[in-house]
């Protein structure tokens, strides 16, 4: 897996319900996460590849020496052992995190 940002939705204004359907149709198991407005998660890494799907709000993720801004409909692939940290936007963020098989 390569570190990359892409769109999971073709719609500009996506919603959590749309993401839930997207994941279900593709049989993707994902865990719902949320970060309150302005809060951050400390630097961390996973021992497996991770996909992040933004459902609501916004988040700024720093990984691999780059900054990625995710809005609803955006995804980010994080290769295993990539150290990343995140800060939620002005309204917080709801995202889903999956470890592909």
Describe the structure.
- The protein has 101 residues and is mainly beta.
- It has one domain (4-98): Jelly Rolls, CATH 2.60.120.10.
- The protein is built from one helix and seven strands.
- It has one helix spanning 16-25; strands spanning 4-7, 31-35, 40-44, 50-63, 66-70, 74-78, 84-98.
- A hairpin with a 2-residue loop joins β4 and β5.
- The longest helix is centred in the first third of the chain and has 10 residues, at 16-25.
Would you spell out the secondary-structure blueprint of this structure?
Blueprint: E1 4-7, H1 16-25, E2 31-35, E3 40-44, E4 50-63, E5 66-70, E6 74-78, E7 84-98
Antiparallel strand pairs: 1-6, 2-7, 3-7, 4-5, 4-6, 4-7
């Amino acid at each position: 897996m390569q570190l990359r940002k892409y769109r999971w939705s073709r719609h500009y204004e996506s919603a959590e319900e749309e993401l839930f359907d997207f994941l279900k149709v593709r049989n993707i198991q994902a865990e719902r996460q949320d970060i309150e407005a302005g809060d951050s998660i400390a630097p961390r890494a996973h021992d497996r590849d991770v996909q992040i799907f933004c459902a609501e709000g916004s988040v700024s993720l720093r990984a691999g020496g780059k900054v990625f801004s995710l809005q609803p409909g955006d995804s980010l692939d994080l290769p295993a052992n990539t150290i990343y940290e995140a800060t939620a936007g002005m309204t917080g963020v709801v995202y889903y995190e999956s470890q592909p098989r």
